[in-house]
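User: tokens in, sequence out, please.
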């Protein structure tokens, strides 16, 4: 299956209902945007951006923009956003972003249908390169990061979020085995922290912050304490149960093969 065929398949399968909702893969593109905009992940993303750069609007390159949830959400915050997405489909690619751009009547959204390594030089003057769940899909990590570096103004920021991390071949094997969609399209990937950091430093970036899986809702969304308590039911009201359960959940996130990390680096 292609990535588009995979998403169309899971939309019709009740076994993936929660995944479709939590990953913003619904056929209702506007609903995906609104859910993402109201998520703790996006709110924390905006908080991190506000710490990195003062003033608005920012000129942002959304690298690997997918169905456009981050592009549109950032544009609705007043930023000038270029979505880079090589997939042309209306389901999960540039076509979906075009639909959303028109629906929201946004003049501050541009769309590039190419890979990161093919960004036109005249487009390489961004304040922020933002990549949500994109860096780990790079065919060649060094080239991907080098392209991001070349797209930024001096003093610009690379902000990558929710990238899969493994630290051994065995962990990667387990990640592929357990990922709910890899069996369909075979397009998942993951790198080690050393590989991510090495590619950034090789390109010339200075790494400013590394967010661990349990450190920020950027990584652990859609989980939160309220959701956990709902899962626990009445026992969450017992002393220390909720706190202990959250501690265990955080430990699991930090150990899981394919665990999610986010990175902030300065040019």
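Assistant: Sequence out:
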């Amino acid at each position: 299956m292609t990535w588009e065929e995979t998403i169309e398949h899971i939309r019709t399968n009740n076994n993936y209902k929660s995944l479709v909702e939590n990953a913003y893969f619904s056929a209702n593109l506007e609903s995906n945007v609104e859910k993402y905009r109201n998520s703790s992940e996006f709110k924390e993303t905006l908080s991190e951006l506000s710490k990195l750069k003062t003033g608005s609007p920012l000129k942002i390159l959304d690298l690997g923009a997918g169905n456009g949830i981050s592009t549109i959400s950032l544009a609705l915050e007043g930023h000038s956003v270029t979505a880079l997405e090589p997939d042309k489909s209306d389901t999960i690619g540039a076509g979906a972003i075009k639909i959303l751009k028109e629906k929201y009547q946004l003049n501050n959204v541009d769309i590039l249908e190419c890979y990161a390594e093919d960004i036109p030089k005249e487009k390489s003057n961004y304040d922020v390169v933002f990549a949500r769940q994109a860096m780990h899909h790079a065919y060649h990590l060094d080239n991907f990061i080098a392209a991001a570096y070349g797209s930024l103004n001096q003093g610009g920021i690379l902000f990558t979020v929710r990238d899969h991390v493994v630290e051994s071949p065995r962990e990667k094997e387990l990640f592929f085995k357990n990922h709910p969609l890899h069996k369909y399209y075979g397009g998942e990937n993951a790198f080690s922290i050393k590989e991510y950091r090495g590619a950034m430093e090789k390109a010339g970036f200075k790494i400013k912050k590394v967010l661990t899986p349990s450190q920020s809702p950027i990584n652990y969304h859609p989980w939160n304490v309220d959701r956990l308590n709902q899962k626990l039911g009445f026992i969450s009201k017992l002393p220390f149960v909720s706190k202990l359960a959250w501690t265990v959940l955080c430990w699991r996130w930090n150990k899981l093969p394919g665990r999610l990390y986010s990175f902030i680096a300065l040019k």
